[in-house]
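# step 3/5: fold
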Amino acid sequence: MTVTSLAGLQVQRKVPLRPYTTLKAGGPADYFVVAHSADELATAAKAAQDSDLRTTPFGWGSNVLPADKGVPGLVLLNQAKRIVVAKTGEVCADTGCGFQELFLKTAQAGLHGLEFAVGIPGTLGGALVSNAGAYRSCVSEFLTGLEIVVKGERQWVEPEWMHFSYRDSVLRLENPPQCTIVRVRMQLPKGEPKRIYDEAREYQRQRISKQPPPASAGSFFKNVNDNALAASMDTLSAGMKANGVVPAGYLIEAAGLKGFRMGGAMLGSRHANFILNVGNASSTNIRRLAQHAKSVVFEKFGVTLEEEVLFLGDWSGWEERR
């Protein structure tokens, strides 16, 4: 199939995705289109779905690892960034806007709730796919509706359509529905401006102290919810034990892997749940290191870590090792 335009937008072929990911790794997109507005995004997604062209929406590439073999079908780069904030606390935002930018706009309007978004280096769309959150909050709790394109139809749906759970949604399934999220509506409560900014600054301070500067995808694995495991960890904080939460980074560090390196990929020496590209690592190198961390943690603690980062594209031939 040869495609030169899609819904009036220019189509590029074999565009390397490495520059579009924070891990600086990944092969080419088979087809590549840039959408600059919600209408362009929706129209391109509809045209692709009508043509049975598999579509992978892409934001800032901060929570994904495209395969070295590339991503078949269409990669749709979402640069729709419009944010409208009402005094009533209603928010309508394009999913290509920066998640931190959304916080700043809502904070300026005196709205509370998205302070945890400070320092999360991704778009709202990416945050929705993985139900991003931190500090006992997550993005899904403020949603009132999502505008999506699915089965060639542009429509508004209830948040329940996404089947949100901890760092998860229907769009993270092994074979997710072909869906592009165009815009969302949110309802945020009023807050006291000084408290909003003080809370955000504290979250930012904590992130800066933990997060390393080299290319990474943020937290690579989800934290583990296991009351018995948490109770068995002598050095785990009382708060974590009470909530039955064991941070993935805690387990990786306890397994002796903090700072461990395989080729150009390394587990963070500051935060063990960060995998860093410190030497032009390929996607395969990075995933192999992640798999090694999973294997060692399983052998030591009997728990299987689950990736927060999404593996995109053609990973045929890849085999998990334990």
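# step 4/5: annotate
The helical segments are 38-50, 99-108, 124-129, 193-210, 227-232, 238-243, 248-254, 283-301.
# step 5/5: archive (pending)
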